[in-house]
């Protein structure tokens, strides 16, 4: 099944076309990379797919249903999650609390509102609500523990997020994304800031979570070794234009891609 499809997806900022008529097609279970030099339009493409920007032109389909123009939280609810180039964690909160909070999209009872005193339930509702809250809290905690175990952070669950080394903060971000139970996971530069050992382990880690959580993965990455090791297929952007697509071997040997990366012009 096609999990993600974009049809002539375009984003203009004034006179600048950051992404031009991009056609992507990503299938269930694939690991696909989006690469390109700085400013090529990769993050803009992610921002359109996840609802941060509405495309100026073109359409986006998730699991064959149109999602163009939906809000980010609506897209998350349908089963898409992302991490960010600049890590976004609650830095003063513990590792566990960071994952716990990320579950809120899946809570059936509105306990966050209740906790904040915004709801005034009658006595019976309150008793039932509290019982349900306790049951849900227990279930969520179990899920958080499972997620932290999967990403190798269970032993650090009580540490503050900001005290973790950068590479582990990235893994915590991934655990937070997994907490929303996505089918498609978008990773924006997962290797950034990782040390050589973490970078080396990243390929196995991403494949493992893809298999364990039945995911499809779409990632932006600058680290070419990671891209070539991990990707089933690669799309290349240059100045907003999709100049190539193919498997790692095809991309490594594509003259247009080599020129885009080396900055060679056609008359040079
Ligand atoms: N909100 C915005 N307003 C105006 N221009 C923008 C905006 N966001 C991005 N751009 C421009 O669009 C182009 C593509 O930027 P984008 O961040 O998508 O590239 P990128 O491939 O993700 O780059 P990098 O690898 O450096 O993160 C750039 O020229 C950038 O300056």
Which helices and strands appear, and what pairs or packs with what?
Blueprint: E1 2-13, E2 16-27, E3 31-35, H1 42-49, E4 57-62, E5 65-66, H2 72-78, E6 80-82, H3 95-102, H4 111-115, H5 123-150, H6 166-179, E7 184-188, H7 196-212, E8 216-220, H8 224-230, E9 233-238, E10 241-246, H9 248-252, H10 255-262
Parallel strand pairs: 3-8, 3-9, 6-7, 7-8
Antiparallel strand pairs: 1-2, 1-4, 4-5, 9-10
Helix pairs in contact: 3-6, 5-6
The protein binds adenosine-5'-triphosphate.
Residues 13, 16, 18, 36, 38-44 line the site of adenosine-5'-triphosphate (ATP).
Written account of the structure:
40% of the residues lie in helices and 23% in strands. By secondary structure, it is of the alpha/beta class. The strands form 2 sheets. It has a 6-stranded mixed beta sheet, sandwiched between helices. A 4-stranded antiparallel beta sheet has the order 2-1-4-5, covered by helices on one side. Bound molecules: adenosine-5'-triphosphate (ATP). Adenosine-5'-triphosphate binds next to strand 2 and helix 1. Adenosine-5'-triphosphate is lined by residues 13, 16, 18, 36, 38-44. This is Amino acid/amide ABC transporter ATP-binding protein 1, HAAT family.
């Amino acid at each position: 099944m096609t999990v993600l499809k974009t049809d002539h997806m375009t984003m203009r900022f004034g006179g600048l076309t950051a992404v031009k008529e991009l056609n992507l097609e990503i299938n269930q279970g694939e690991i696909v990379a989006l690469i390109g030099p700085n400013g090529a339009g990769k993050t803009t493409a992610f921002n359109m797919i996840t609802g941060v920007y509405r495309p100026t032109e073109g359409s986006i389909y998730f699991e064959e249903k149109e999602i163009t123009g939906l809000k980010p939280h609506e897209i998350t609810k349908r089963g898409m999650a992302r991490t960010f180039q600049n890590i976004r964690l609650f830095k003063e909160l513990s590792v566990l609390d960071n994952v716990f909070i990320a579950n809120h999209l899946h809570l059936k009872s509105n306990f966050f509102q209740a906790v904040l005193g915004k709801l005034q339930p009658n006595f019976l509702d309150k008793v039932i609500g509290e019982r349900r809250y306790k049951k849900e809290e227990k279930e969520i905690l179990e899920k958080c523990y499972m997620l932290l175990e999967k990403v190798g952070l269970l032993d650090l669950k009580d540490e503050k997020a900001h005290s973790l080394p950068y590479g582990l903060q990235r893994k915590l971000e991934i655990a937070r994304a997994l907490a929303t139970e996505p089918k498609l996971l978008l990773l924006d530069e997962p290797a950034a800031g990782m040390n050589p050992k973490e970078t080396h382990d990243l390929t196995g880690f991403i494949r493992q979570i893809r298999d364990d959580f039945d995911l499809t993965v779409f990632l932006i990455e600058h680290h070419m070794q990671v891209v070539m090791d991990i990707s089933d297929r690669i799309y290349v952007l240059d100045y907003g234009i999709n100049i190539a697509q193919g498997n790692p071997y095809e991309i490594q040997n594509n003259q247009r891609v080599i020129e885009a990366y080396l900055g060679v012009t056609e008359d040079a």
